[in-house]
Specification:
Layout (H helix, E strand, L loop, with lengths): L1 H16 L10 H9 L3 H30 L17 H28 L10 H29 L1
Length: 154
């Protein structure tokens, strides 16, 4: 139990010690995993599972967004689109795919920078990076849902 606390406690203390810091490296996943983990390895597996779940949700949401931007419902009536097979529809889908690839690179670099408040050799560093990626994934899911909501609001 002491080992568990030595892994997660620095992350929890950072939350209260550095309240001016952007909350992107802190979040519910660390808190949930620290409560349920009996040791360091269990805590890491818990965080990795949550990261994997959010990554899968990002992919499912992206697939839904891609389907939507390629559908007839996305196209505004009486505009200069010929059909859902027109070049602009293909370009839009490619733009969204390229945006996702750029976002994945951004996420990795951003979390590296956001977690740099402590040494990458510190025991809590991987926890901060993983929590950051979870938070970034959740934000991306919300962005993609906002994109898809455009259709419903028009």
């Amino acid at each position: 139990m002491a080992y568990k606390l030595s892994f997660f406690l620095p992350c929890l203390l950072l939350t209260t010690s550095y309240t001016f810091a952007t909350p992107v490296i802190y979040g519910e996943a660390v808190t949930v995993c620290s409560r349920s983990a009996s040791d360091n390895a269990t805590g890491i597996r818990c965080l990795e599972k949550q990261l994997q779940q959010t990554e899968q949700t990002v992919q499912r949401t992206l697939e839904s967004a891609l389907k939507q931007v390629q559908s007839e419902d996305w196209l505004l009536p009486n505009m200069d689109y010929e059909s859902e097979d027109s070049q602009i529809v293909k370009d839009t889908a490619n733009a969204l795919r390229n945006d996702q690839a750029a976002w994945e690179k951004h996420k990795a670099l951003f979390c590296q920078v956001a977690s740099s408040q402590i040494s990458s050799n510190a025991p809590g560093y991987p926890t901060l990076v993983t929590q950051c990626k979870i938070n970034m994934n959740q934000a991306r899911i919300a962005e993609l849902k906002q994109l898809m909501a455009q259709l419903k609001s028009e």
